[in-house]
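Run log // design_07
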């Protein structure tokens, strides 16, 4: 007990600055306005403990109708936004994590859980303010990395080893002027990789650092796309429509994206109209079959159909699960990747709702090492975190802004 007490106080002192507790590195989509309305097929509700369930109106799909929280300067001159946890709160959280770890009650974490968490950062986007932000996971104190990131930042990905953060810009959804940007982890050296018009309306993105590729879904472009990490060799892997008439069919709009590099698959979501009940989760091989194109490839599998309005996705390949946010019923959900025996993509009912009452559910990112899932809310909602089964839901940065994408970065 004496050792445990000493450790807890050591964590508190560290987070207050005595010896250091780890330091940080330096939605709504556009188009159709939505009024989320719950209408879902049969589901299992695991935890109905959403953050900020009331008080935040639905976001406008074009620009969001909640203003982003203004940046302010702390005593040390660090840019931050309202909702910062503060050092005492972070120290208490770290101490609690240390005690839980000692007791063996921290799911998915080892004996140094508090120290590990201090090395985890999350990067996320504010679409209304056009900003790239980040925070240390142990001390959720939001910092603005890029104050002028461009029009409509939506998807974000991090390459810690190379020192880069990447993000997509939706631009004007009717102008075919989407782009992909990159900066150093501290927000410096902002660079355009895929220039305006190189993609239509890019949304969620993922990286294959070893393979030198970045992947994203292109909503109004009705494509799943790929390029080299320097922005060269842009190509479509999946094309769901080609004409202006096709573009009017929102069931063709690709939004979320996830990778199974070992298995050779790319996953994505097609959202459908607002609360339309025709959204789907799909996958195909990373490489187009020989003799086929992105338009006529025959290896596309529909994994889950007739969803309200799925947005961003992530996969837990070890557990065989896919996670997604849904903007129609404002939830975070998961389901087995594979269709259960006796069911089809449009008859399966094994969706498990993990978190409800999210202001406007957009971004999702998994921290499998610690058994956690992070999510973002548009419409002035919170940035939240829960256990992978939906329990232990917490608001890390309340009223964080009109948020879209989120990505995690494990620091050395």
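design_07 sequence
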């Amino acid at each position: 007990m004496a050792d445990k007490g000493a450790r807890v106080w050591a964590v508190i002192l560290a987070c207050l600055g005595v010896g250091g507790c780890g330091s940080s590195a330096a939605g709504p989509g556009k188009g159709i306005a939505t009024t989320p309305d719950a209408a879902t097929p049969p589901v299992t509700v695991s935890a109905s403990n959403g953050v900020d369930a009331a008080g935040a109106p639905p976001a406008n799909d074009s620009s969001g109708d909640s203003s982003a929280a203004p940046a302010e300067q702390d005593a040390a001159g660090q840019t931050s936004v309202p909702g910062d946890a503060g050092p005492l709160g972070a120290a208490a959280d770290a101490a609690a994590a240390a005690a839980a770890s000692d007791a063996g009650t921290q799911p998915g974490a080892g004996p140094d859980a508090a120290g590990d968490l201090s090395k985890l950062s999350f990067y996320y986007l504010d679409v209304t303010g056009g900003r790239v932000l980040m925070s240390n996971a142990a001390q959720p104190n939001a910092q603005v990395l890029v104050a002028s990131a461009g029009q409509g930042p939506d998807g974000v990905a991090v390459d810690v080893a190379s020192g880069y953060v990447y993000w997509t810009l939706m631009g004007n959804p009717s102008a075919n002027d989407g782009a992909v940007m990159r900066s150093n982890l501290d927000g410096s050296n902002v660079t355009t990789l895929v220039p305006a018009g190189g993609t239509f309306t890019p949304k969620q993105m993922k990286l294959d650092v070893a393979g030198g590729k970045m992947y994203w879904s292109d909503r109004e472009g009705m494509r799943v796309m790929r390029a080299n990490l320097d922005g060269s060799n842009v190509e479509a892997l999946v094309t769901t429509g080609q004409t202006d008439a096709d573009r009017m069919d929102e069931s063709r709009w690709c939004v979320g994206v996830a990778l199974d590099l070992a298995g050779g698959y790319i996953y994505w979501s097609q959202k459908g109209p607002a609360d339309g009940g025709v959204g789907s989760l799909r996958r195909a091989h990373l490489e187009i079959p020989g003799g086929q194109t992105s338009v006529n490839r025959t290896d596309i599998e529909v994994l889950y159909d007739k969803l309200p309005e799925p947005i961003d996705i992530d996969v837990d390949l070890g557990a065989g699960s896919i996670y997604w946010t849904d903007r129609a019923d404002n939830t975070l959900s998961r389901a087995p990747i594979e269709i259960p025996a006796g069911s089809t993509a449009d008859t399966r009912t094994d969706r498990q709702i993990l978190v409800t009452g999210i202001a406007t559910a957009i971004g999702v990112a998994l921290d499998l090492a610690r058994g956690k899932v992070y999510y973002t809310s548009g419409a002035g909602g919170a940035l939240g975190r829960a256990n992978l089964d939906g329990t232990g839901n917490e608001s890390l940065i309340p009223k964080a802004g009109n948020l879209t994408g989120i990505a995690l970065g494990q620091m050395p």
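Residues 28-84+121-410 form a domain with the Neuraminidase fold (CATH 2.120.10.30).
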